[in-house]
Amino acid sequence: MNQTPIDYNTAQEVIKSYNLSDFGHATIREVVAISTELETKTGTEFIHMEMGVPGLKAAQVGVEAEIKALENGIASVYPNINGAPEVKTEAARFIKAFIDIDISPEGCVPVTGSMQGTYASFLTCGQCTAGKDTILFIDPGFPVQKQQLIVMGYQHESFDVYEYRGEKLRGILESYLEKGNIAAVIYSNPNNPAWICLTEEELRIIGELATKYDTIVIEDLAYFAMDFRKPLGKPFEAPFQASVAKYTDNYILQISGSKAFSYAGQRIAITAISDKLYHRQFDGLTKRYGGGTFGSVYIHRVLYALSSGTSHSAQLALAAMFKAASDGQFDFVSEVQEYGKRAEKLKKIFTDNGFTIVYNQDLDQPIADGFYFTIAYPGMTGGKLMEELIYYGISAISLSTTGSHQEGLRACTSFIKPHQYDLLKERLKLFKSNHSL
Ligand SMILES: Cc1ncc(COP(=O)(O)O)c(C=O)c1O
User: Fold match between 8-56+332-435 and 60-326?
Assistant: First the structure.
C-alpha cells in the first residue's frame, strides 16, 4: 500500500471530530467543512467535487443592468410583489424562445432563487385539495427540496428512476398517482445529481398522467438548456429545452438565474405557472384564504408571507439577461458549455482508473456531459468510496443522500481548475494501484 496524499490518521481524526453517525450520509456542507479543514491541516490541495456552486463569472449584462437599476434609486421602495413588468414580459418571451411554450407574463413570477420557487410551489400545491397532501419526487434529486418539506411538515414519497426509464416510467408513476394523495410531482431536468435528461417520451408520460390524476408537475429547470448534446442556445429555433409543458396544462416551471447565467449570489429565478393553472380555483385555497386562484394565492398570499417580493435590481438583471438571450445577443449556452468540457475530461480520467459512471444512459443514448456526473468503484458502497477518496484529496457526495438506490457518488465539475486534471490522474492512479493489491 502506497502512502495516500492525505495522511490516514489525520483524516480519521478530522472525520471523527464531526461526530457523524455515518460519514456516507454527510451533507454537502459537512463534506466541504471536513475537506477544507484537512486541506488547512495537511497543506495538501483538495480536488473539490462536492459543491454545486457555479464556477464561472456572472453574466456581465446582468451585472450592468443591476448597477444601473440601483443607481436609478429603486432600492428605497418595496418591489411589486407580482414582479417588475420587464422581467415578467422577458421571462415569457425567453420561455417562448427556448422552450417554444406560450405562457402569459402574468404567470411568470420572480422569486428569490428557485429554492423559494419550489418552497412556495410545494406549499400552495399541498393546500389545493383535501387529501392531496404529499409531494412525489422522481429521484435522484436535490436533497434540500426534501428538507423544505420537512420544514413545512409535508409528506413526501419518492422512487429512483434508474430502473424505470422510458415506457417503464408509466407503471411506477401511475402506481403512486392512482392512490390519490399526490399534490405535486417534482424532478429536475437535466437532473441533479445524475445528469440524466428525461426524454420527450418520458415527459409525455408524466404530462399525460398529471392530467389524468389532476396532479401538478413542478419541473425544475435549474440547469436550463445544459443538455449539451443538442444545440439548445438558438432563440426561436428548434431544438428546444424539453419540457412537460408541452404535454399538460398542470405545470409550474422553475427557471433559475443561478446556473444558466452564473447568478447564484443574487438569488433570482422565475416561477412560471401555466395560464390554466394560474387562473384555476381550488376548494382548499378558497377555504383557507377566502378566495383567489392558484396564481393569485401563490403571489399575494404565499410569496407575500415569505419575502414580500424579490429585490428590484436582481429582477432587472434577470430581465436584461433574458432579453439579451432572446435577442440572440447573449449566447448563454456557449458560456456554460465549459462544464460539459470539464465533465468529458474528468469522466475519462475516472473510467481510465477503474471507475464506472452510474447513471450513464438516457435510454439508448449516453448521457450528456455537464455540471454533474456519477461515479462508482467496483465492490465499494457509496459511503465507503466517499471516505476512501478523502485520503486521496478528492471530495464528492454520496448518492444515498439524493434518493438514489445506487451505490456511488455525485461529482460536480464546477470547481475544477485547469491544473487539477493531472493531479486527479496521478491520485486516481495511486487509488487504483492501492485497491488492486
Ligand atoms: C436541481 C436544483 N434545483 C434548484 C437549485 C437551486 O437554485 P436557486 O439557486 O435558483 O435557488 C439547485 C442548485 O443547486 C439545483 O441543483
Answer: no
- The answer, yes or no, to whether residue 156 has pLDDT greater than 70, is yes
- Taking CA atoms only, the protein residue closest to ligand 1 atom 16 is 192
Residue 190 to residue 157: CA distance in whole angstroms:
21
Other beta carbons within 10 angstroms of residue 419's beta carbon come to: 8
Whether 219 contacts 179, CB under 8 Å: no
Ligand 1 centroid to residue 145 C-alpha, Å: 9
pLDDT of residue 21: 82
Place of cell 390519490: 180
Q: Which CATH number fits domain 8-56+332-435: 2.120.10.30, 3.40.630.30, 3.20.20.210, 3.90.1150.100?
A: 3.90.1150.100
| CATH fold for domain 60-326 | Aspartate Aminotransferase; domain 2 (3.40.640)
Q: Which residue has the cell 457523524?
A: 20
Q: Where are the domains positioned within the chain?
A: 8-56+332-435, 60-326
Q: Examine the pLDDT at 371 and tell me if it is beyond 70.
A: yes
Nearest CA to ligand 1 atom 3: 222
From 138, 256, 310, 404, give the residue whose CB has the most ligand 1 atoms within 8 Å, as the site to mutate: 256
| Model pTM above 0.90 | yes
Residues with CB under 6 A from ligand 1: 52, 113-115, 142, 188, 192, 220, 222, 256, 258, 264, 269
Model pLDDT, residue 437: 58
Place of cell 409543458: 245
pLDDT digits (tens, 9 = 90+) for 215-269: 999 999 999 999 999 999 999 999 999 999 999 999 999 999 999 999 999 999 9
Grid cell of 109 as nine digits:
413570477
Q: What is the mean pLDDT of residues 334-358?
A: 96
Q: What are phi and psi of 252, to 5 degrees?
A: -130, 125
Ligand 1 midpoint to CA 114 (Å): 6
Nearest protein Cα to ligand 1, atom 2:
222
Give the residue whose CA is nearest to atom 7 of ligand 1: 114
